[in-house]
Amino acid sequence: MLAPSGAVALVALLASAGSVWQARTPWPLQPPAPVPDGRKPKLERASELACAQCHAAQVAEWAGTTHALAWENEPYQEELQGRKKAESCHGCHAPVALHGALDALLAGKPEARADARHFGVSCESCHLATDGALLGPTGAATEKHATRKGASFDAEGSNALCASCHRTTVGPVIGLARDFEQSAGAASGATCVGCHMAPRAEVAVEGGTRIVRSHALQTPRDPAFLALGFELTLAHEASGPALRVRNLAGHRVPGLIGREIEFVATASDAALTELGRETLTLTTESYLRVDETLELALPARTARVRVLGRHHDPRVDKPVTFLERELGP
Fold it and tell me: Is the whole-model pTM more than 0.90?
């Protein structure tokens, strides 16, 4: 799929990734530290949400996410100008409650809210049932409102909830959930939430414990999180040395038109004499498939390789370094 660049041979290898998903669970997620890209740092007026009265910490986390800013995102609003049937985009940027009767997710593309679109993908989008109850992983009772345990907060259900928007390919956005649904990760029980919502605490519940997760979503804007999507190894085989880059993300990378992921490999011999540099560039036209490995051929005497990973974000002026690693003895 990837075309050779100069004398550098890129060989796509089919990888069996089930063991990888099992070995790296849970992800070593830290609070996200996204690189500034010109968008607002957080949604204004988030504290006006009724949910904030009791769930201030969760609302504060959510307020700085792309979900909260989905409607007010300036590039989104600019894309709508002059676009035919612009309203067809609104359902994923300010969706109604995504649940149907008996906690079954609505089929097809979400509809847009008639009002309060300012709040983007809001608390109600994911937690409100059609009968007015608030859905969660346990359904713990409260005097504030009706509650119920929601199937969409189980492993399989949470994937379906996310996929209701993220299966759609439109504009610069690629429907990555379609990739994930066919991945080894999904088959082995991985979830969207498990990778994108960091665990904050483990609490006791009836019959055991459950993980409380952060509502500050992890995205490729955070260099440390982006680095978790790749496994790098230095291979020495009969055909010669090679840098292997394996996709652990659960979907293709990159996943947004305009993004580029670049790996610059500097090869050295046993005496640490530099032998040369080779580059692997991933774009949405030449991407790394889910569960796939690419090989980057290196000079014959390579004993050590220094890898620099750079993320070219169309909203950021300069490439962002997300990975620096040395491989070899």
Answer: no
The alpha-helical segments, DSSP class H, found in the chain are: 18-23, 56-63, 74-80, 90-93, 123-127, 155-166, 176-181, 184-187, 192-196, 223-227
Q: What are phi and psi of 220, to 5 degrees?
A: -65, -10
CA distance linking residue 117 with residue 92, whole number of Å: 11
Q: Check the CA dihedral 144-149-152-153 and report its sign.
A: positive
Report the C-alpha gap between 184 and 249 in whole angstroms: 11
Torsion angles phi and psi, residue 267, rounded to 5 = -95, 140
DSSP secondary structure of 93-162: HSB---B-GGGPBPSSSPPBPSS-GGG-S-HHHHHB-TTSPEEESS----SSS-EEE-GGGSHHHHHHHH
Does a cis peptide bond (omega within 30 degrees of 0) precede residue 254? Answer: yes
Instruction: Provide CATH code, domain 10-16+223-327.
Output: 2.60.40
Handedness of CA 234, 239, 245, 246 (dihedral sign): negative
Give per-residue pLDDT as tens, 207-250. Answer: 777 888 899 999 999 999 999 999 999 999 888 999 999 999 99
Domain ranges of the chain: 10-16+223-327, 38-189
**What is the rounded distance in angstroms from the CA atom of residue 269 to the CA atom of residue 287?**
30
Cα distance between residue 9 and residue 297, in whole Å:
6
